[in-house]
Amino acid sequence: xxxxxxxxxxxxxxxxxxxxFEERVEKEFAxxxxxxxxxxxxxxxASGTGICFxxxxxxQIGSTHRGHGHCIAKGCEVEGMFLEIMGKxxxxxxxxxxxxxxxxxxxxxxxxxxxxxxxxxxxVGAALTQKLRRTGRxxxxxxxxxxSNQGTTLEAMNMAVVLQVPMIFVFENNGxxxxxxAEYSVGAPSLTDxxxxxxxxxxxxxxxxxxxxxxxxxxxxxxxxxxxxPYALETHCARFLGHFVGDPQKYRxxxxxxAARANDPILRFRSKVADAALLETAxxxxxxxxxxxxxxxxAAAAREAPLPALATLEADVYVKY
Amino acid sequence: xxxxxxRKAINQALEQEMARDESVxxxxxxxGGGTGGSGDVGSVGGVMGVTKGLYPKFGPDRVxxxxxxxxxxxxxxxxxxxxxxxxxAELMFVDFIGVCLDQIYNQAAKFRYMFGGxxxxxxxxxxMGGAGMRAGAQHSxxxxxILTMIPGLKVVMPxxxxxxxxxxxxxxxxxxxxxxxxxxxxxDMKGEVPEEAYEIPFGEANILRDGRDATIVAFGAMVPxxxxxxxxxxxxxxxxxxxxxxxTSPLDExxxxxxxxETGRLIVVxxxxxxxxxAADVAALAVSQAFDALKAPVGMVTxxxxxVPFAPNLEDAYIPSVERIVEAVKxxx
Lengths: 321, 333
Ligand SMILES: Cc1ncc(C[n+]2csc(CCOP(=O)(O)OP(=O)(O)O)c2C)c(N)n1
Ligand SMILES: [Mg+2]
What we know:
The complex is a heterodimer. By secondary structure, chain A is α/β, with parallel strands linked by helices. Helix content of chain A is about 45%, strand content about 10%. Chain A has a single domain, classed as Thiamin diphosphate (ThDP)-binding fold, Pyr/PP domains (Rossmann fold), CATH 3.40.50.970. Chain A has a five-stranded parallel β-sheet with strand order 1-2-3-7-6, with helices on both faces. The termini of chain A are far apart. Chain B folds into two domains: about 5-190, Thiamin diphosphate (ThDP)-binding fold, Pyr/PP domains (Rossmann fold, 3-Layer(aba) Sandwich), CATH 3.40.50; about 205-330, Rossmann fold (3-Layer(aba) Sandwich). In chain B, helix 3 runs parallel beside helix 4 and helix 9 (about 255-265) packs across helix 10 (about 280-290). The longest helix of chain B has 15 residues, at about 5-20. Chain B is globular, with a radius of gyration of 20 Å. The interface between A and B is large, with 51 and 45 residues. Thiamine diphosphate sits at the interface of chains A and B. Chain B: This is Pyruvate dehydrogenase subunit beta. Chain B: InterPro entries: THDP-binding, Transketo_C/PFOR_II, Transketolase-like_Pyr-bd, Transketolase_C. Chain B: Keywords: Oxidoreductase, Pyruvate.
């Protein structure tokens, strides 16, 4: 299906928001305003954006420790995200979660997850709800190449097939789990071969190309919404930075690092729409400026915001106790 | 004597034991680091740099980078242990026992008993715990109470560099499965550590300070805090004993009871939610074995019954503070 101008602008705005957000996270982290550690999504913007593009707030996603991009693509507000990442009052989770635990149930965002392989079983359950309630909606589990080797992920894949739930397993293969390469850690010939062996259709796409990801996701969505069970997508992505902000990355050679940067999903999107005369460069630049201004304001406000009230420490352990 | 960090002390213990005994192997996520990459393989040495330098020295057969598959990591280490190796498996954060607990408590810990004494499982699980790094609810727990209650496991909580080295060497040479719970708050702590290898026996408490007014029992990262509290109390003329059990299983009950005989007052500092904690465990020991010696209710300084919060002010309030320890001691006087 052809995307219209508004669609294209929406896609670009999402990707740019992720880019600007993560660049700001990198900077704030260096400034010491972000406690703990931060895993950024730089280089992978087209993947999360393409996957979430045709999802509604009623479709649900489970994310990973590298979840900021997924949150933004699923509609979480960057203002609340900055507050959360800085551990401030008014954060999306009241400052109690932090970077690795951003969640927004109203947006169908079931949580970033600091346990590798934590999300796939949860997404099976969300898909079960969708199936039993006959909503016609789906659940998506994002996992990395590293998480593809976790027992929980493999169990979830089998169970999703057995229960025939409307679910999409998205494997964002950025070549590394922490400092270990996927080529070493994934024993199967490929992630799609492995998914297919579980009994679900699987496709591998260029995760740096928004259009390829979005088109593949539409096929996956059609399949899942038609009641045909789960589907798997592998998006091949570039990880611009290290595992976390500040990782010196001695385990990656200089050529590889340069190649990762050369495959910039935002630049590729820009040249594609410009070459096809779908959007003017000026329009794209306008979005850039708009997005950067919003990110600047959100980050600045979060820096100034107060810490959560101490009384919240013991709140919300239970609904009622 | 050389002054080295807690991190380096652990590294030295691993290096010396690997050099001494070929059956000692390391396995875990990025214990070498960089396997399959285009740069320097083995350049990482663990997320905290604890195993740095071991891959270049001992190679990929003995410093094994694994996939992110904790059940298989721990289970394979248990299997290698029961068949003759002495694996030191790294569970990067103790929080991750959630995805491998079966292999720890139903498998490794039970082999010997279930098999009528026929199995020997010299497995060490090196892991790290504790709050204070702003790492959030799934990377900041201690979980030693869960591990301590498992029969067949030994559980070690080193509180300083000297103990870290001696206890790890003991753990590697021990024929039973041992969880070696490092404190991430202590990796940069410096202390005197002998260059040569030495063992510290399990189940032998360390009395860091002797005082007759009260006994503070503290575990892991809470030991330095208890010492700070003792300093403050000394300024007010209150003299306390600070006792570090060093291992939670076995627990040196005798040392605790002996000290209680002298002081009659007990304060337990445990970085853990209160229910079923070591604080509750040691308090129960005192009440059931030394009721007559007690001059005051046992003080329990623990975390609240909550997950670990992310926001810095909340996390600081979560961890037992020096102030709270001082106050708890004063409450018993
Ligand atoms: C159960 C568990 N094991 C290990 C870790 C430590 N860890 C955090 S992220 C990560 C790598 C994940 O790699 P991948 O799934 O490829 O995601 P990426 O970081 O590349 O996005 C590891 C090992 C963890 N958080 N949880
Ligand atoms: Mg990866």
